[in-house]
Automatic annotation (TrEMBL):
PROSITE patterns: ABC_TRANSPORTER_1, ABC_TRANSPORTER_2, MOP. It comes from the Bacteria. GO terms for molecular function: ATP binding. This is Sulfate/molybdate ABC transporter ATP-binding protein. Residues 1-229 form the ABC transporter domain. Keywords: ATP-binding, Molybdenum, Nucleotide-binding, Transport. InterPro entries: AAA+_ATPase, ABC_SmlMolc_Importer, ABC_transporter-like_ATP-bd, ABC_transporter-like_CS, Mo/tungstate-bd_C_term_dom, Mop_domain, P-loop_NTPase, Transp-assoc_OB_typ1.
Length: 355
């Protein structure tokens, strides 16, 4: 039996969420999806802040679908620490065990502050803490209540670029040491790879893709997974040794799918060469595109086509080719650089490489 078993269906206005999500003990699942896909709705349903129209929720064998939030044994770490401003860090962490009337609440709070490397901040109030320090205390507070399920709602989103890596490493260490399941909502592929065993991709209130984190983010089958991983994705129908795209172009690649399936071709922008003219006779894939924009990316320039595909080339190559938006060019990629995979459907459509 899974540690968490849930199935929710809820309609609010024109939006319907219909999701089944199960977790094993100690499993960490990252939930990804575009804005409006239903991530916050799912978290609110799990936390008891929203009631489903139908469905079920069991956690550790307990039926929680009708339970109030404080009865569920679910901890939440949000984007903002939300610490009680009038309490010290120690008192904030102690709040949960004290509310549960557990013996040794102070010792529990001190232990968790030490566990998240925040023991030195025990006597400080939230206004005396940096963003990273406050988020560590918030994590200790969530864990000190000994929840059966931990929800992390973009916990690194509000941290600056220097604090986020340390907090990410801390979360990984703490989550790996726990037997409780956890769900992490994030827009960052690195969070999913570092923290999660499994990735679930939501779109328009449905799960459109799920699987082991590394597999989903290196072999995506949905547009959002490709976008968050920084890859090109083209939808179509699988053929022998490749894909017949929805736009009518046959793309050769390393296929893992049987012919005739809904499929996607996936390749990195760094694998794309750019030509002003069609390189006839080449064994590579050649896609005619219209440039929509160019933007610097470190030592490279990302070319974005009107159809969404992208190529990363050097500034010298941009100058040599005399490239500018509005031109028709050829994006060329070797078949060995293209992965072709079966897809769950056509809802992922399109070809959207993004950051």
């Amino acid at each position: 039996m899974s540690a968490l078993s849930s199935r929710f269906r809820v309609t609010r206005g024109a939006f319907t969420l219909d999701v089944q999500l199960d977790l094993e003990a100690g499993e960490v699942v990252a939930v990804l999806g575009p804005n409006g896909s239903g991530k916050s709705t799912l978290m609110n349903l799990l936390a008891g802040l929203l009631r489903p129209d139908s469905g079920h929720l069991t956690l550790g064998g307990r039926d929680l679908v009708d339970a109030q939030p404080h009865q569920r044994g679910i901890g939440l770490l949000a984007q903002e620490p939300l610490l009680f401003p009038h309490l010290t860090a120690l008192a904030n962490v102690e709040f949960g065990p004290r509310a549960q009337r557990r013996a040794g609440s102070r010792e529990t709070a001190l232990r968790w502050l030490a566990e998240v490397d925040a023991a030195e901040f025990a006597d400080r109030r939230p206004r005396q803490l940096s963003g990273g320090q406050a988020q560590r205390v918030a994590l200790a507070r969530a864990l000190a209540a000994e929840p059966d399920l931990l929800l992390l709602d973009e916990p690194l989103n509000a941290l600056d670029i220097d604090a986020a890596p340390a907090m990410r490493g801390l979360l990984r260490r703490v989550l790996r040491a726990q037997s409780r399941p956890a769900i992490v909502v994030t827009h960052d592929a690195l969070d999913a790879l570092v923290l999660a065993d499994r990735v679930v991709v939501l779109d328009a209130g449905r799960i459109v893709e799920q699987g082991p984190s590394r597999e989903v983010l290196t072999r995506p089958r949905s547009a959002f997974a490709a976008r968050i991983a920084g890859l090109n994705l083209i939808a179509g129908t699988t053929v022998e040794g490749g894909l017949h795209s929805d736009s009518g172009v046959v793309i050769a690649g390393r296929s893992t799918a049987a012919p005739g399936e809904n499929g996607v071709a996936v390749f990195s922008p760094s694998a794309v060469a750019v030509h002003r003219d069609n390189p006839h006779g080449s064994p590579r894939n050649a896609l005619r595109v219209r440039l929509a924009g160019m933007e610097p990316r470190g030592d490279l320039v990302r070319l974005r086509a009107a159809d969404g595909t992208a190529a990363d080339i050097t500034p010298a190559a941009v100058a040599e080719l005399g490239l500018e938006p509005g031109q028709d060019v050829w994006f060329v990629v070797k078949a060995t650089e293209v992965g072709v995979h079966a897809a769950l459907g056509r809802s992922q459509g399109g070809s959207w490489p993004r950051d």
